[in-house]
Design goal:
The complex is a heterodimer of chains A (363) and B (448).
Chain A lengths: L11 H5 L4 H23 L11 E12 L2 E12 L3 E5 L6 H8 L7 E6 L2 E2 L8 E4 L11 H11 L4 H14 L15 H13 L5 E5 L7 H16 L3 E5 L3 H7 L2 E6 L2 E7 H7 L4 E7 L5 H5 L3 E8 L4 E7 L5 H9 L3 E8 L3 H17 L1
Parallel strand pairs in A: 3-8, 3-9, 6-7, 7-8
Antiparallel strand pairs in A: 1-2, 1-4, 4-5, 9-10, 11-13, 11-14, 12-13
Chain B lengths: L1 H15 L2 H27 L5 E6 L15 E5 L2 H9 L8 E4 L4 H4 L3 E3 L6 H27 L4 H7 L8 E4 L5 E4 L1 H36 L2 H4 L5 H55 L8 H18 L2 H29 L3 H27 L4 H8 L4 H8 L6 H29 L9 H7 L5
Parallel strand pairs in B: 1-2, 1-3
Antiparallel strand pairs in B: 3-4, 5-6
Helix pairs in contact in B: 1-9, 2-9, 7-9, 7-11, 7-12, 7-14, 9-11, 11-12, 11-14, 11-15, 12-14, 13-14
The chains are: A alpha/beta (363), B mainly alpha (448).
């Protein structure tokens, strides 16, 4: 299989290097001009250029109302280049509306959108690849013909599209599907074709809405690795899913939307850090001591299970004590087999935050 | 625009390459041709069966006067045999039994008995022959009574047949031979064709939109192109499929008509010759002029068709097909985007189909009176004009009416496209919601 992925070409320096030096100069001018713009924008109007050079997409105070209900109320997100941005939220929160706004399928009622630091333009959709949650293909059309058509709609020339498609079909080992009709494929097979048509034009920003539905574990893994590889090669990915374990695996940054408002935003580890409850899991050997006495008021035993093979408990800090203090006390009581801090999973965070928020809204 | 072209090309090619399209485009003209040829062909073919009819004539009025022809023979029988046959028809090997009653002169009634249904042709033949014989006898009696010499010849000379030629004054005062019947026929056919094409291809747009919506491919596509471009490409692409079919049909129709023309020409000569034989054998030789008359008629038809404004008719057909199609296709496209299922589509379709059905209903009245107020208004109102105006044009329509009708239609198209774009944009992304007309009207005023 070919080593040079088409993605490496999406980095401008590489794309221009095989060409004449003239192109490189042009590119430098462009970059220079770009930087000048940023500097200028700092002392003139801050509004025009709020984002730093690293933000590929930014939405400021986006509002979208449909008759009878608000889909998005003043939502702002910033997506850093070459990262995976998780867009989370319960059903009907407004994620799809936001994604459609990014894709320019619908326009916001108010708010600003920036792509690569400047206000978004209609041509920018060629730099965006979108795999919607509700997706499908023309059933009567042949796989190859259809992939070619969709690639051309994304602005690729027929030649480039054919070359690229050949590469991807080989990579996914589906060359012999080229002449088949889509209705002959299984759901998973069609999803693979769909994934290819989403990434074929090497967009700078990819939006995946529930990309793993319909895939078996092997193919899920395949797609997951492709996504991570795309990220490594500099593509930015907005990733929307309800599958929290894949969020933890893939995302760098998340935003959580509930009932049209953004209620949580941040680096994934910071978010988890923020929601940890200073709880530790201790596995030990030996007699079970009367812990409440020994631990005192600074600690609380939440759970205690003892089976024949393993004794274990969960202890929570009540004040900001250090881990060593707890260890010191415990060490005197029994032999410690393992000691680790319980970090909440994204699943826990999601449920906790959304339920909390729903309660607040009710009140 | 480049994107619209890509969409247009896909819409066009996927449909034109379909087997059903190819078969229909090629077979329908052949089928139509078969429908016109077969009856003519069968008419020359049929009735080669030999039949013998037993005649019992106690009055002796027709005795030995009924002429047999090639296939139908008359056999005179005495009373005994007649009585025998009456009780047991099967014993004789006759096709039928003809009984001339005594009082036939006063009652004008004869009887024909058979064990099967007597064919129309045989009944006609027998009736004609008896009529001719009795009429001839009566006339002869009257002529003999009056005693005027050569009266029969003189009476024959008074026979008259008059053809009223309709002549239309052309634009430059040039008289053009025209025929109301031919204008009517062409108007009818053209009107029906408009109805058929507008409806068929309009519905094709609706199904195409629904397919994209139910397949869920539409969201992928409108993330690369504007919804309007998608709808536009679809309508134009399907419209071109329609035009392709019309052009192929016209070409095939001309080809077949040329072939059929020579065939029918040949066939009709045969029939005329046959008729001549029959008639002359009865001593009525007037019909001898029929053959030249027939050829004259054919010539005249060709002349009259030439008298019609063929380029205008063809131009009108293309113009009104394109515009009528776009008008209805935009409505059908909007409906397709708004519904989720076929059942919902059926319901929403009805109001849009009504004007088309109405046009077909009034088509006959319009063809009878192409200058009346109904014809005028129906050819100006954009929902009916694609059918009614095309049906009126062979009769000749004042230029100002044609221009007014076209301008109104073009204006309506702009309105309908605007409306369809608005509804489509909202509709295609709306799932699982049963929409009604009120809701759709609301979509018209949505901002993006």
């Amino acid at each position: 299989m070919a080593k040079n992925r088409p993605w490496s070409e999406s980095i401008p320096v590489i794309r221009y290097s095989p060409r004449s030096s003239c192109f490189i100069i042009c590119f430098y001018f462009e970059k220079h001009f770009f930087l000048c713009n940023i500097i200028r924008s700092f002392d003139t109007d801050n509004k025009v250029f709020k984002s730093s050079i690293m933000d590929i997409f930014q939405a400021n105070n986006v509002v979208k109302e449909f008759v009878g209900h608000v889909a998005l109320s003043s939502v702002s997100i910033t997506v850093k280049e070459a990262s995976v941005f998780g867009l989370l939220g319960p059903n009907g929160a407004g994620k799809t509306t936001l994604i459609r706004i990014i894709n320019q399928i619908t326009a916001p009622d108010s708010g600003e959108l920036f792509f690569e630091g400047r206000p978004i333009r209609s041509e920018d959709i060629y730099q965006i690849g979108y795999l919607p949650e509700e997706r499908g293909l023309y059933k009567k059309m042949k796989v190859g013909e259809q992939a070619l058509y969709l690639a051309q709609l994304k602005g690729m020339s027929k030649r480039d599209a054919l070359k690229s498609l050949k590469f991807w079909f080989e990579k996914f080992e589906i060359q012999d599907w080229w002449g088949k009709k889509v209705e002959e494929l299984s759901k998973g097979m069609a999803q693979k074709v769909q994934f290819i048509t989403t990434v074929i034009h090497q967009p700078k920003l990819l939006i995946f809405d529930e990309p793993f539905t319909g895939f078996d574990p092997i193919n899920t893994n395949l797609i997951k690795n492709e996504i991570l590889e795309l990220k490594k090669n500099g593509t930015t990915i907005i990733f929307s899913t309800h599958n929290m374990s894949s969020v933890e695996e893939i995302c760098d940054h998340i935003a959580l939307i509930n009932q049209s408002k953004k209620i949580l935003d941040g680096q994934i580890d910071q978010v988890k850090e923020k929601f940890k409850t200073n709880t530790f899991e201790v596995i030990y050997r030996g007699d079970t001591p009367d812990l409440d006495n020994h631990l005192g008021s600074n600690f609380k035993v939440l759970e205690h299970t003892a089976s024949e093979h393993q004794k274990q408990m969960k202890v929570q800090f009540l004040n900001g004590n250090s881990n060593n203090e707890l260890l010191k006390i415990l060490m005197n009581q029994f032999e410690i087999v393992s000691f680790k801090e319980i970090i909440p999973s994204m699943n826990d965070v999601f449920i906790h935050v959304v339920e909390q928020n729903n309660l607040e809204i009710k009140l | 625009m480049n994107k619209s072209f890509l969409i247009l090309r896909r819409e066009y090619l996927t449909r034109v390459k379909k087997k059903s399209f190819i078969i229909m485009t090629l077979l329908v003209p052949v089928f139509m041709a078969a429908l016109t040829i077969l009856p003519t062909y069968l008419a020359t073919m049929d009735d080669k069966e030999e039949r013998t009819i037993a005649v019992y004539d106690p009055t002796s009025l027709v005795l030995n006067k009924l002429e047999s022809n090639e296939f139908t023979k008359f056999h005179y029988i005495p009373e005994q045999e007649f009585q025998g046959l009456k009780t047991d028809f099967k014993s004789g090997k006759y096709y039928a039994l003809l009984y001339i009653p005594e009082n036939i002169i006063t009652t004008s009634r004869a009887e024909m008995i058979s064990d099967k249904q007597i064919t129309f042709d045989v009944k006609n033949l027998v009736t004609n022959r008896i009529e001719n014989i009795i009429e001839g006898d009566k006339r002869k009696a009257v002529i003999d009574q009056t005693g005027v010499p050569d009266l029969e010849k003189k009476l024959a000379a008074t026979k008259t047949s008059i053809t009223v030629e309709t002549i239309k004054m052309g634009e430059e005062g040039k008289a053009v031979k025209s025929s109301t019947e031919i204008a009517m026929a062409i108007g009818y056919v053209a009107g029906f064709m408009m109805y058929f094409f507008v409806l068929m291809y309009g519905l094709m747009v609706m199904r195409g939109v629904m397919e994209e919506k139910t397949n869920r491919i539409v969201e992928v596509i409108i993330s690369s192109v504007k919804p309007f471009q998608l709808l536009f490409g679809k309508i134009v692409g399907i419209g071109l499929v329609g035009l392709t079919q019309i052009v192929i049909w016209i070409v095939l129709a001309i080809a077949i008509a040329t072939g059929v023309g020579s065939f029918i020409g040949h066939g009709s000569h045969e029939t005329i010759a046959q008729a001549q034989n029959i008639m002359s054998s009865q001593g009525v030789d007037q019909i001898a002029t029929a053959a030249p008359a027939q050829t004259n008629a054919t010539l005249e038809i060709i002349q009259m068709i030439g008298g019609l404004n063929i380029p205008l008719i063809i131009f009108a057909m293309f113009f009104y097909f394109i515009c009528g199609f776009i008008l209805y296709a935009s409505f059908y496209g909007a409906i397709g985007s708004a519904v989720d299922s076929d059942e919902d589509a059926q319901q929403m379709m009805m109001p849009v189909m009504m004007p088309l059905i109405f046009s077909i209903i009034i088509l006959f009245a319009v063809a009878k009176n192409p200058e009346g107020p109904l014809a005028f208004w129906a050819s100006i109102i954009p929902f009916t004009s694609p059918i009614i105006m095309v049906a009126r044009i062979p009769f000749g329509v004042p230029v100002w009416q044609i221009i007014l009708s076209m301008v109104v239609l073009l204006g309506s198209i702009m309105g309908s496209i605007w409306m369809a774009g608005k509804i489509y944009r909202t509709g295609i992304l709306m799932y699982g919601k049963k929409v009604n007309l009120k809701e759709i009207v609301k979509w018209l005023f949505y901002k993006n």
